[in-house]
Design brief:
By secondary structure, this protein is α/β, with parallel strands linked by helices. 40% of the residues lie in helices and 18% in strands.
Length: 424
């Protein structure tokens, strides 16, 4: 029999801006100690031994946390890292340029669970094509979108559909056509050098002729569903936009406005719908409210772009640089996910609706994302998710972890971090 893995969880990319936040969060989690379970066995990893030593010397995490210096271009070393863990989470992006495939692929082959923060939809589509079947055979769960893109949207859609009864065994409700619309009403935060680099990675991949960035594929709402046979039969095919909003929807004098992450999140949610056999009758769209932009503008104005707080918000962050500590701490996000049964006769009521309201504190892309990815990793490493859903594959937060992750997020910081409320 193979020896048990050395670590429950390995965090790769721990020395980057977001990776440091995830590392600090994991170092402060009193994981299961009060429940009489063994303490969390975890390690930080990255390509630079010097930076890993500096991370521990800084006091950012405990000196006793093991560190693993591994270049992902070294296949043997990458395989050894993967075999040492039950689960791996990855913060070293842009993932399409920083050898993310090497780490994800090794996890898929070895049956080790994995998640990352990639918002590069074209790269996610490529990983699905190459590794979904590999991970299914090994039992590895590869979870797309382990941060703010796309945990709130994906879990929100799952909760709203569940409250509507659209995923149950009642034939009347289970056959109804349903429209799900997620509206982000708050998103107070900024960006890091990694976010800027991801934008450059997209441009580079387009210039290089990446097949998933060709014109037709770039606008395909089902870009992440080629293996699910819904590309021609999904409920959003006629809309034909990544975010699910009507063609031509743009800025204007209305309550609903475009949302810059809508196309990323919506594709992950549609993969969830496809994996659950719902894509043919459930559509999904994502946008923002006018209030989101007013709240963000008010924060930037009253802080003087951070100058009045003694810590300016960088307008052109470089790698390793991101929002100031006050914004990481005081930012917030909120999304209302509304599921509406559109076929009254089969839905059991005229326009029956259910609403999932997700609220969180902390800069969405950094303070909040660090906790979300940390909890995804802990859920993969410690929770009985394989009893809940035994199959591996390239999955999503809702299809791979579901209610187990919901319960974890509700408990973070004594319930003060994130609320996930459902109104049937």
């Amino acid at each position: 029999m193979a020896a048990p893995p050395t670590y429950d969880l390995v965090l790769y990319g721990a020395t980057g801006f977001t990776g440091r936040l995830v590392a600090r969060y994991l170092d402060g989690v009193p994981e299961a100690a009060a429940q009489g379970k063994p303490p969390l066995r975890w390690a930080v990893a990255g390509r630079s031994e010097r930076k890993l030593r500096a991370l521990k010397a800084s006091g950012w995490i405990g000196r006793g946390v093991p560190s693993l210096a591994v270049e992902l271009t070294d296949a043997r070393a990458t395989d050894r890292l993967v075999r040492s863990a039950r689960a791996v989470i990855n913060c070293a992006g842009p993932f399409s340029q920083c050898h993310g495939e090497a780490l994800l692929g090794a996890c898929a082959r070895e049956g080790v669970h994995y998640s990352d923060l990639a918002g590069e939809s074209w790269w996610q589509a490529e990983m699905i094509e190459k590794y979904h079947d590999v991970a299914r055979r090994s039992g590895a769960k590869v979870i797309l979108g382990g941060g703010v893109d796309s945990v709130p949207s994906d879990l929100g859609a799952m909760l709203a559909l569940g409250a509507l009864g659209a995923t149950g065994t009642d034939p009347a409700k289970a056959e109804a056509k349903v429209r799900v619309v997620a509206t982000y009403t708050a998103y107070t935060g900024s960006m890091s050098g990694g976010t800027v680099a991801s934008g450059r990675a997209r441009k580079h991949a387009r210039r290089a002729g990446h097949p998933h960035l060709a014109a037709a594929r770039d606008e395909d709402p089902y870009l992440l569903c080629d293996d699910c046979d819904v590309a021609a039969a999904g409920a959003d095919v006629e809309v034909g936009t990544p975010d699910g909003m009507p063609a031509g929807f743009s800025w204007g004098f209305r309550w609903r406005q475009p949302f810059f992450m809508g196309g990323i999140n919506a594709r992950v949610v549609r993969r969830s719908l496809a994996l659950r056999g719902l894509a043919a009758r459930v559509s999904y769209a994502e946008c923002s409210s006018l209030g989101l932009w007013l709240r963000l503008a008010w924060t930037l104005l009253t802080s003087g772009m951070g100058y009045l707080r003694g810590a300016p918000i960088p307008l052109k962050p470089v790698p390793g640089q991101g929002p100031p500590a006050w914004l990481i701490r005081e930012g917030s996000f909120a999304v209302d996910v509304v599921a509406t049964a559109e076929t009254a006769a089969s839905a059991g009521g005229d326009g029956a609706t259910a609403v999932a309201t997700i609220r969180g504190v902390g800069d969405p892309g950094y303070g909040a994302t660090a906790k979300m990815l940390g909890e995804v990793g802990l859920c993969l490493a410690l929770d009985p998710h394989q009893t809940w859903r035994p199959e591996g594959g390239v999955l999503t937060p809702s299809t791979g972890l579901g209610d187990l992750l919901v319960r974890r997020l509700r408990a973070v910081d004594g319930g003060k971090f994130m609320s996930l409320h459902v109104t049937p």
